[in-house]
Each structure stands twice: as C-alpha cells, then as structure tokens.
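Sharing a chain and its predicted structure for anyone who wants a worked example. Both blocks are below, sequence first, tokens second.
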Amino acid sequence: MRHTPHYILDDEVELRRLVRENPWCTIVSATSEHGLVASHYPFLLDEEAEQLTLLSHVGRPDETLHELGDHEVLVIVKGPHGYISPSWYEPGDIIPTWNHVTAHLYGTPQILSDDQNLRVLSRLTDHFEQHVVEPRGLHLDAEYSRRVARGTVGLRLTIDRVDARAKLSQNKPQPVARRIIDELEGDGPYAQSELAREMRRVHDPRDP
C-alpha cells in the first residue's frame, strides 16, 4: 500500500478487531508455476496464540495452486470503505478521496493435519452458526463431515509482518470530519454506516 505514515494502523488490538469483524479475506500468492494467484476464504483468529495468527482452509486443489507452505503469502483484510465527496468539505476543496480500513498480513502457512483441519472447519461453522436461531454444526454428522473435509486443506498462518491503514479523514479539521460522519450516516448515495462507525472511533472515541 501507499506509504502514508499518518494513516498507519499498527495497534494489534485494532488489527484483531478488524479480522474478527471482516472474516472474508483474500489470500494472494506469488507462485513459481502460475504467477500471481488469488483466492477468497473466511479466516478466524487463533485466539489461543500470543502472536497474531489466522486459521482457515482452502478447497482442493487451491493448496497446490497457491503452493501453500512453500513461501510467504499475503492475506488482505478489507474493512469498511467508501467514497468521500468533496461536497462535504469546506468551500473550494474539490478533491474527493476514498476512506478505508485495510490490512495486508504476511506469513508462511502451516498446513494442518486432517484432524486439525476438521477442528478448524468446526470452529468456522460454529462461529457463524451462533447467530442463527437453530444453529447446525459438523458434530451433528461427524462421519459425513469428515468425508466432506477431505476436499479441503486447513492452514494456520502466523503473521510475520503487517502493512495496514486506517484512512479516516485524520487530515481534516474536526468540523469537516463530523460532517463526513453525518453524511455517511445519512440516506445519501454514498451513505456507509459502518465506515461512519470507524470514523467515530478515531474522531470521537467517546461515541463509537
């Protein structure tokens, strides 16, 4: 990402929150055979690991396509984002921008055993099913779940380096930032309530 020091996000607590709230991520590999390869999968934090660590799986044959375990990969976590109109700025300011919260996370994946992969798949399912009225889990048919899991490969990714940004109009005066938040919370064509919430965390921590 563009080097913008005043937007750098290096707070691990905030990085963990970003992953928790935005689990659908992009994994990118620079492979020896296929060049750049990108896929999209849900990722969870390994809450038991001290270092920032992600858990996920890929469907076969993505593990060979990405050459997982052979080299570093990039996982892109994309949080709330949206267009910021210069009409929300002071008169005479005509340059628009795009606010966003984005993290690039790098590491070399560890390929999980079949049993470990099944546990990760169960955690993924249980994590998302907890919000439905009648949740279903892989434990309801353990043998069938084990057979289906053979079509996937689990991975654990310990993050070695991070390049993250929270670009949330920190370069604007507070009255302008508040106006942007109001517009994002409104009913206009570029309303984006989740982005407004992120901006409030920066510009008015008392009102998240």
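Comments welcome. The helical segments are 12-21, 62-65, 114-129, 142-149, 174-185, 193-203.
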